[in-house]
Amino acid sequence: MDVSARELRDRLHGALIAAAATPMTAAGEVDLDVVSRYLAGLVADGASALAVLAHTGRGPYLAPDVRAAVIGRAVALGVPVLAGVGGSDDPALAPEQARVAAELGADGVLVFPSAGDRVALHEAVWQASRLPMIAFDLYTMPCPQGTMRELLAHPGVAGLKTALLTDAIGCQRAIALTREAGRLAITGEDRMFGPSLLWGAQAALVGIAAASVGVTAAVLRAYRDCGLRAFEEASGRLDRLAEVTFTEPMEGYVQRMLWLAAAEGRIPESHAADPYGPPLPKEERAVVVAAAGVAGPRACAPAG
What we know:
- By secondary structure, this protein is an alpha/beta fold.
- The protein has one domain (3-293): Aldolase class I (TIM Barrel).
- The chain is 45% helix and 12% strand.
- Helix 4 links the parallel strand 3 (81-85) and strand 4.
- The longest helix is centred in the C-terminal third of the chain and has 19 residues, at 227-245.
- It starts with a helix and ends in an 11-residue tail after the last helix.
């Protein structure tokens, strides 16, 4: 493993990496001051690192100048920053996106899965940027086991994020293979969050931390410090929130998290739109906000 990948792996061990949304208007306009305040709030409320321009951040849809500006605002906060690269119809864009992220001071890249040669894509990203990479096993395009082994053997891969949604066996396999390879096993399993920690995940990179970030931070804290009962209670609160935010249509979760971010005062209503997701019934918003209202994090005393 390259020294840069090893250093990022160790730096992110135990971290809550918020998969941040990109606040925008219904027309797709981004206000960078809104972005800065939003990202700073996630860090203040418990995120120890940020993933910008990822699936939650609608990175594949954003123009290069907007992408660069969002990365710059995240880097200015002084926490580790991962930038999402790839994910568009043209996988050739990913290496250039990674090169720009490196110039702007990102600490690593989260590489979207592609329909083509994933190993070749990661190698191209690595050669273009020399930024350590997080591989991505996503439910819309699961990674074949043989390909996963090849990715985990790449010197620039620091870890792998699994986000398989309902595939418990696939999640367990990905975590096991990642740890066997000496890489960082990262859960992106918003609907299997507590179980994925018990299965061996060593860090979290989740869209449910795009708002109500303290709910997610409380689960990690309870798992690490507070004993089984506290972990069970914290996981239950997160599960109740995930049940109404990560549900069909699944791509609607971005809009639901933006609703929560607005309800929490993190972003203005004018910038709580997801123009790239499916339309959702207006009455759903009240259900989501109500679930967040009863799912607030609680402090715990360390076990023992």
